Structure formats: C-alpha cells, structure tokens
Amino acid sequence: MTTVLVEGVAFAAPDDREQCAASAEHAQQLRDEGKYRRAREQMLVCARDVCPGPIKSDCGKWLTELDRDAPTVVFGARDNKGSDVLDVKVSMDGAPIQERLDGKPVLVDSGEHTFKFESKEGAVKEERVLVRAAEKARPIIATFPSAADAIGDNNKGGGGTGDKGPTTGSTGEGSVVPALVVGGIGVLALGSFAIFGIGGKNAVDDLQKCKPNCAEADVDSARTKLIIADISLGVGVVALGVAAYMFFSRPTIDTSKVQTAGQTKKKDWLRIDGGPIAGGGYAGIGGSF
Asked: Is the pTM of this model over 0.85?
C-alpha cells in the first residue's frame, strides 16, 4: 500500500484507489448474490482510511447494513450424555469456518449448507441446514454418538477389520414358517374332510337299505363320520385363511436387533380345537409366533 503525504494529509495512491473501487463494486455484487461472508471481506477492503472518501463512506454504510441483515449461526456440540464438547472443528460446504467452538455467532451465507463437525477424537457429524436471510444466532447443534455407536457405524460402512457386528438399520420380512405350518394343517384338515365325508356318505347310503330297522351303532357311526367331516372342513377353511393372512401381513423386522444370551425367546405355539356338539360340531384355531 502506497500513500502520499502532502502537508500532513494522507492521499490514496492510484493503485489503492483502483483496489478500493474494485472491492466496492465486487462487494455489491456478492451482497446481491447472498454471499455475505465474501461481500463483507470486500467491504472491509474498501472501507479503509486510504480509500477515497465517497467509496469509504459507501462501504462503511454497506458494512453496517450487512452486519444487520446477514444471517448468523451459533455452533454447538454435545456427547451422547448431553455434555458440551468444545474441541470441535466446523466446516461449511467443505471450507473451514471455525477451529474451536466458542459460543459466538458466525456470519454465514443464506441458503442450504452442509456443516461438518469434527471432534479431536475423530468423531464426525454432519448437519444439513437451510439458513434463511436475516436469521440471527440460530443454534446448530451436533450430537456425537457414543463409542459403541461409532463402531457400529464403521461396521455398517465397511470400515475396520475383524468381525462385523449387525448392520444398523437393516430390515427384512418376517419368517414364512408359521404361515406354512398353519397352511399345512389346513391341507391335512381338508384331506380329513374328504376321507370322513366319503365314508359318512357311504354309511348313509348303506342305512338307506336297512331303514327303518338299522342298528343304532351303524346310525351313530355314520353320524360321527359326517360330524368329523364337517369339523375338518371348518378347520381346513379357517387354517388356510389364517395362513394366507399370516403370509401377506408378516411384519418387517429390524435384523440388527440380535437376541443376547440373557434374553428369553418367546415360545411359539399353535392350538386347534374341535369336537361334536348337539346338532353339529365346532372348530377353532389359535396360536402365537
């Protein structure tokens, strides 16, 4: 920077005047584009004492207005217990913006940004934020995971060596085995319906030949076969319906939740009830999987 002293008064050299004018023009352009951080840097250049009076005055005014209107954020970080973490570096869209958290507002550009927090232990957390014009002291807080969570995240991303733990957040559909078991019972019940139905019909046909002098034992036998056939049909229809429902509505499960040795697995069970009653029979099915 070169100045010329004439009778104790400082005047800007030609190079300074050109730099001041260029910075003033560039500052306005950056400000209008919402690039407040770079605009402020240019305004500080053209607001220096060595700049011509009109340029210095305009840049000082613009600087005051920018500090009033530009958004600011306050960075913070916590561990998984909620305690503040201070030794954290912050970058915005890949460019460093703060070397250590101090709780002071930081001027940023409006728009969408990705803020990356890095602790001295190497933990990394990213926050994607939409910063609005004229927002002031907006808190942006990153919460670092515990060591166990960090190891799980590394395993998920394929990093590290050795055995990998369960993948966090992986999901899968529930087992089809219960549906197949219930469906198999339904098929067996329909087979029973066919066998006892045919046997009962044949017995009824035989009774037509001896009525009204048929033996009571033969009548009871035919009735029992028909009742069993009816019960088997009911059980078969219900079981197949339940099997279809269990197959198509089986839940989505989180495969990362691995059962530990101390946990007790709930035992699956299935119960089918049936029997004759006055004037017919009854059937029921129930279970837990």
From this structure: no
